[in-house]
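quick one before i forget lol
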Amino acid sequence: MPTEAGPGLAVTGHGGATPSRVASQQTGAAPGRVVTKQPGPAPSQVVAARAGTQPGAADSEPGAAHAEPAAPSLSVVDAVILERAAAALRLVLDRTRGRAPADDPALVETLLDATAPEQARLYAARRLGLDLTAPARVLAPLGDRPRVVPAGAGVAGSRPAPPEARLGVGPAVPVLDLPRSWAAARTALRFTAEGTPQDPGPRVVHADELGGIALLADLVVPGAEPPPDVRALEAAAATTPWLSATLHAVASTTSLRAAAAGINVHHSTLQDRLTHAEHLLGWPLRTPQGRLRLQLALAMRHLARP
């Protein structure tokens, strides 16, 4: 009559378990013996398979052969699942620690959209880690996404900009007024310059410091035909390499001596340059009215750039 050699297997024959029978149980076939598999794996087979051993009498009977444990391995599907789980966990940890949301484009866009519902903007502000009871401001870097920072964080915020970057800084406002700060920051960005001899001027401009001159931004359309004084500046600068830096020094300092020191030339040299510049531009530069006209022309020159 059949003897039971292991869960799920019935082996016909007589006698105890021999190495050949054990091998037959492991391979599922044996010469001269009929092996019948019962439907479905038994729980002991599942446990044995996970442990890297064969179920049955191989480990319990004397003289039975022992199978080597199989080395654990991951399938491609397992690896993909683990990688995605790790990415999701990293995203959750970053958000709860308040790092990643500061650069979340969707949240920032919602926060700065004046047409978005108030509750949606408040939700975005909380996700960005902002204090709803404290003022904040918007930074407008040239060629980069806007950044929202607390009012006392400075213009660098959580992600400092390169020193050569141009940046418009909006005013500090309540959280729900940040769309207004964003508009002002973009206007301030238009007044910035590269800070080079060919394009002198500040790289960082605060909207709070513009005052009434910010109204020029509504009058001068980028890329359109510039005003006559701007055209005169462009024509003069094209033929005189030192002109732009000299005129900026005169317009942004308190005296001609300070302007000469700012561009590292002698006072008499500056006087000669101004005489030549007045001839090219067609208006005086050493009178209060002429200096104001120069300041406006330089500001409109920045605004007229596409």
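fyi The longest helix spans residues 76-97.
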